[in-house]
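Data availability (excerpt). The following record was deposited with the supplementary files.
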Amino acid sequence: MIDISDLASQKIKELMAADGVADAYLRLGVKTGGCSGFTYGMGIDTDATDADDTIDVKGLKVVMEKDSVKYLRGLQIDYKESAMGGGFTIHNPNAIATCGCGSSFRTKEEAGVPGEC
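Predicted structure:
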């Protein structure tokens, strides 16, 4: 359903350990907004609800709101290091357009609700 590179998985686990929540979830989501109509959400969460789908990816417990799953199918999360630092990157095969900052997108089926990026 989604793929997380080995380096991204390692970095996420390091963040969880540093926050003292090594058994937490990686929460992924999508909401309307951003330049292109939808924006990604990614964070650490200690709770999952009945409104979530939960999967295991490379030893990480990943939760996604059920409403977001259709936008996240096939998602690839990586971590890139550069001279300016490092950060997570997202490749979404469902996105037909993205904004310059890379944090918003739209799909063939839905344009979302564009807002500020």
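Summary of structural features: The mean pLDDT is 86.
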